[in-house]
Write a structure and sequence with these properties.
Structural class of chain A: alpha/beta
CATH architecture of one domain in chain B: 3-Layer(aba) Sandwich
Number of domains of chain A: 3
Helix content of chain A: 55-70%
Distance between the termini of chain A: 29 Å
Radius of gyration of chain A: 28 Å
Mean pLDDT of chain A: 71
Oligomer: heterodimer
Shape of chain A: elongated
Shape of chain B: elongated
Strand content of chain B: 5-15%
């Protein structure tokens, strides 16, 4: 849902990443783009402005950290500002004693109040509570009927009568007490914020039942008006939180930022689908990461650190430095990658993933890796150390043993040969222009950005710093991630289904990418990105 | 050079409605729509005068307050910021705003436009043109002819046709016109169907409603209430049933009963849901079968919708060839500026505007009044 915003910020960050030094002009441009990204995501103009201002101040006040490139410092500043604006705190739901806890839902017409009421009832029911739904929307034809139908579906009693909203709400609360329900959810009529009379009505309802929680239901697709709406309701009702609906669309949900920025109330629940179960608590603290598309990288790195065998990583890294790269090393790396979990899952954690790639990630077949592995495992240790001994009959044996064809074996061997050449060349410190793995260098677009992020040791260190782990001890790890950053299937997907061995070979290209950086010691952007 | 910029104030542009109809903000609306009574409106006589666009907008926002500060001043960077901000705040969107302002900047630079007054007027003129003329704006920037305000000169090289906002109705023997109402959830499709039905019935057309929203609980009931209220027939299906079947039945029944127009409600659906969009395509296909003929596909759009509105319009147009937009809930504080982007990018005109909750608050779109309110 927040993909678009995060994609854009990612692109900005990617460009800045490639800069060695950040000039004022660069900063201005970056901030301008951040502003556009926010506006396109429907963040309110004023909120966007103060957001950008906040980022600027953070950047200005920042002591130049050793482990961060200037571009990364902007990203870090954006990240911190997002966290600051969204706020880390989740609304802690407490329950009234004596019960029932009264929850009042208000919102514009069509924001999804009635559906949200039913979903909320279902959610509480699952929490072991006993809610009662009260239909106080007497205005829209058949609104109460809709609530009754939904109530039946979630198995929650619906109370309503055709008097007036205030009486219904009051009687509903009585009914909840009588039935011994501990939650009383009151659905009110949708209204236009400017409509004084209707706002007055909802206030009278509110006064009558003294809700413990007043929740504003807001449509994720709302534009600049989100702020006016939230403010109007907040002035009238003193909101406690927001329910954000229709997050399953492709709206960018900037309203979440706007509303939090203006009325200072958190989003408590989010509704992410038409089904009554598509509803859950919203975690504002996770959203900054999500918008920026970075938090998941942090968890990926954590995951990698947990899963990977540092000794083996260090071993293969040092061999690479010497320009050696045998099939054994390859197999070793493959094992490490596999520990991270399914490739599709890992890919989704990577930044710079476009929507298409994300979809493609769902379809990644982990068996491709298995096939590559099978080929290598069908070789003798001697063959793995020195593939040149593999002749025609050995090929046939290997193919048969791994259930593949000799072509597959050939391809893998060929790729390995080329990679070995590259690794050697790099160990000798030569540049490597025009190689397929070049996307792994920083500053590339799309995939390149992704490769760049993981491919660069420095970047990685920066990310670790972002994650609060500024200690830079991760060289070996970074090296490995450099290798795994460009996951084979990623290329396979991007190029429309490459053969397994070829894809696997790509892994090596990435690996060499990291080696280059080790040599260079400093990340410099390739000219021909 | 642009021929005769629009008259100095929006009050004088366009319809010529007398300024004195404007009441102070937020009053009449309240008077006309008593809260609990709306429900029992069936008994009420229906001769509430159709509100004019301006009247309603004027009430709620004080036409043109926003850019007044720019008048009588020169043009400096702050001016541009202010123009930009007012467009962005109206949900016009970054790209469209940039395009509009780039053209204005060029004209200011060429001294075609000088001073705050002219600048505001030029912007209004551009917006009105954009919303009035049947062409993709931007292709002919600079040579923009001005139509519809009595100032178009005959020697204009490029003459763009004014956009038709008429709802197409083929008055042929044996043809059942089908108007399809589509959109995302909660924009007011069912209500719009009801209001259009009422207007069409008032025009003397024989209308049948098709409750194609078989998904949302009680949507059928809601439409049935409207049918009863306006005196039209309604065809309903089972909840969760096939909406295409409902529309098919409606067309068949309309043919049998001699109804010339079927208004087909559909379930709200996000444009991202592939299967639901497929379902919509099927509804359209089925409705197109003789004697049915789909003469309008109206995208119902909520004025509060932000930049996602453009995406919606694009997707729905691709799927079911949308013919026009109905912009609902424009009587709130939201300005609905996304329709400017929709018109510009997709050439999709706004045909109707919802200005309130009353049954007669659905009126024809008026670009000049809309623009006046947009910048206000």
């Amino acid at each position: 849902m927040f993909d678009a915003l995060s994609d854009r910020l990612e692109r900005i960050a990617g460009r800045l990443r490639s800069r060695g030094r950040l000039s004022d002009a660069d900063l201005d441009e970056a901030l301008r783009e951040i502003r556009v990204a926010l506006l396109e995501a429907d963040v309110e103009v004023g909120v966007a402005r103060s957001f950008v201002q906040g980022v600027r101040e953070r950047c200005a006040g920042e002591v130049l950290s050793k482990s961060l490139t200037p571009g990364q410092q902007v990203v870090k500043a954006v990240h911190e500002e997002l966290v600051a604006v969204l706020g880390g705190e989740t609304l802690k739901l407490t329950y009234a004693s004596p019960p029932p806890t009264v929850v009042l839902l208000a919102g514009l017409q069509g924001s999804g109040k009635t559906t949200a009421a039913a979903k909320l009832a279902r959610w509480w029911k699952q929490q072991g509570r006993h809610p009662l739904l009260v239909g106080a929307d007497l205005q829209r034809p058949a609104a109460v009927e809709q609530l009754r139908v939904l109530g039946r579906q979630v198995g929650v009693t619906v109370f309503s009568e055709s008097t007036d909203p205030v009486s219904v709400a009051r009687a509903g609360l009585e009914e909840a007490r009588r039935l011994g329900r501990d939650i009383c959810i009151i659905d009110t009529a949708g209204r236009l914020a400017i409509d004084a009379e209707l706002m007055d009505e909802v206030r009278r309802v509110s006064d009558a039942v003294k809700p413990h929680y007043t929740l504003l239901v807001i449509d994720a697709m709302i534009g600049q008006d989100a702020v006016a709406t939230a403010r109007a309701f907040h002035d009238t009702l003193e909101l406690d939180g927001i329910i954000l609906t229709k997050l399953d669309g492709d709206a960018r949900g900037g309203a979440a930022l706007s509303v939090k920025g203006v009325v200072g109330r958190p989003i408590v629940f989010a509704s992410t689908g038409e089904k009554l179960g598509d509803f859950d608590l919203f975690h504002p603290d996770r959203m900054a990461d999500r918008i920026l598309g970075m938090g998941d990288v942090l968890s990926l790195i954590e995951q990698a650190e947990r899963a990977m065998d540092k000794a083996s990583v260090a071993r293969s890294a040092s061999r690479l430095m010497e320009g050696r790269f045998t099939l054994d090393d390859f197999l070793d790396q493959l094992q490490q990658v596999k520990k991270l979990g399914s490739l599709g899952g890992v890919m989704k954690l990577l930044p710079g993933m476009t929507k298409e790639l994300r979809t493609a990630a769902d379809q990644i077949d982990d068996r491709e890796l298995a096939r590559v592995e099978a080929i290598m495992r069908s070789m003798t240790p001697g063959e793995r150390t020195d593939p040149s001994v593999i002749d025609g009959s050995r090929r046939v044996r290997i193919a048969r043993g791994s259930g593949t064809s000799t072509q597959d074996v050939n391809q893998l061997l060929k790729q390995h040969r080329e990679m070995q050449k590259l690794v050697k060349a790099m160990a000798n410190g030569n540049g490597m222009p025009g190689m397929p793995g070049l996307g792994g260098l920083p500053g590339g677009k799309g995939l390149g950005g992704l490769g760049g992020l993981l491919g660069g040791r420095k970047q990685l260190a920066a990310l670790r710093a972002l994650g609060g782990d500024a200690e830079n001890d991760g060289d070996g790890l970074a090296g490995l991630l450099g290798g795994t950053g460009r996951l084979p299937s990623l290329d396979a997907v991007a190029t429309g289904g490459r053969s397994p061995s070829q894809s696997a070979a790509r892994v090596q290209h990435g690996a060499k990418g990291k080696n280059k950086k080790k040599k260079g010691g400093r990340v410099t952007p390739p000219k021909d990105r | 050079m642009r021929p005769a910029p629009p008259s100095p104030a929006p009050q004088e542009i366009g319809t010529g409605a007398a300024p004195e109809v404007e009441a102070p903000a937020g009053e009449a609306l309240v008077a006309e729509v008593p809260v609990a009574e709306a429900f029992v409106e069936v008994e009420r006589p229906v001769e509430v005068a159709a509100a004019t666009f301006r009247e309603r907008l004027g009430r709620t926002r004080g036409v043109f307050a926003g850019l007044r500060s720019l008048r009588g001043k020169g043009v400096d960077p702050a001016t541009w910021d202010e123009l930009e901000e007012s467009l962005l705040r109206a949900d016009v969107g970054v790209a469209t705003t940039d395009a509009l302002l780039a053209d204005l900047r060029r004209r200011v630079w060429q001294k075609e436009v000088t001073g705050g007054d002219q600048l505001v007027e030029a912007l209004e003129g551009d917006l009105v043109d954009l919303l009035s003329l049947d062409r993709r704006w931007g292709a002919a920037a600079g040579a923009a002819p001005v139509l519809g305000r009595g100032s178009a000169s005959a020697d204009e090289v490029e003459v763009a046709a004014p956009i038709s906002r008429d709802l197409r109705f083929d008055d042929e023997e044996g043809v059942v016109n089908v108007w399809l109402f589509v959109g995302v959830n909660g924009v007011g499709k069912t209500t719009t169907v009801g209001k259009v039905a009422r207007q069409q019935v008032a025009m003397g057309r024989s209308v049948l409603l098709a409750a194609g929203d078989t998904f949302r609980a009680a949507a059928g009931e809601q439409l049935a209430m409207w049918a009863e209220r306006v005196g039209a027939g309604v065809v309903r299906g089972a909840e969760g049933g096939d909406p295409s079947a409902v529309v098919f039945d409606a067309v068949q029944r309309a043919a049998a009963r001699g109804n010339a127009l079927v208004l087909a409600d559909t379930a709200g659906r996000l444009h991202t849901k592939v299967n639901l969009v497929e379902e919509l395509k099927k509804i359209r296909r089925v409705a197109e079968r003789p004697p049915g003929r789909v003469t309008e596909v109206l995208l119902v759009l909520d004025a509060t919708t932000g930049q996602n509105g453009l995406v919606q319009a694009r997707q729905f147009t691709e799927a079911v060839e949308v013919t026009g937009v109905v912009l609902t809930k424009l009587d709130g504080t939201a300005k609905g500026g996304i329709v400017v982007a929709i018109q510009k990018e997709l050439g999709l005109p706004v045909k109707l505007v919802g200005l309130g909750e009353g049954p007669d608050d659905l009126v024809r779109f008026d670009p000049a009044d809309f623009v006046g309110a947009l910048l206000g």
